[in-house]
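User: Before I run my own analysis I want an independent prediction to cross-check against. Here's the chain; please return only the structure tokens and, at the end, one sentence I can use as a sanity check.
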Amino acid sequence: MRQDGRLARMVHVLVHMGLLGGRETSERIAQMLNTNAVVVRRTMGQLRRHGIVASEGGRGGGWSLAKPLNELTMLDVQRALQGETILEAPLSSDHPSCPVEKATNARLQAAFQDAELALTKAFQATNLSDIARTALDEKGG
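Assistant: Structure tokens:
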């Protein structure tokens, strides 16, 4: 099963944008991510709808941060890209009347809820400026 890497990839792009302080075109972002500019526009459009980035068309246009890095969290980006739920419990519905399936699903659901809560707290506690600071510290050291 292929994992969705949009969160890591878009946080990467947003931190670069914050550090560089300017606009980036969809084509330039696509080069950075080794993908297609159409994919970038679609993904950045999701971020724009959630107030994370802004866009300007025409010559000299492109994408820019709508807020400074210290006002953006990983949770903001995750929710813009994937919605409220970070983890979905892989429940079975093959035999809804089976007590073993019910018990299995209940345990899985509880475990995933605990993990969801922990991830939500960690993502909320991580500003994109924290990531930028760490990157700059590693670059200098």
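Sanity check: The first strand starts at residue 53 and ends at 56.
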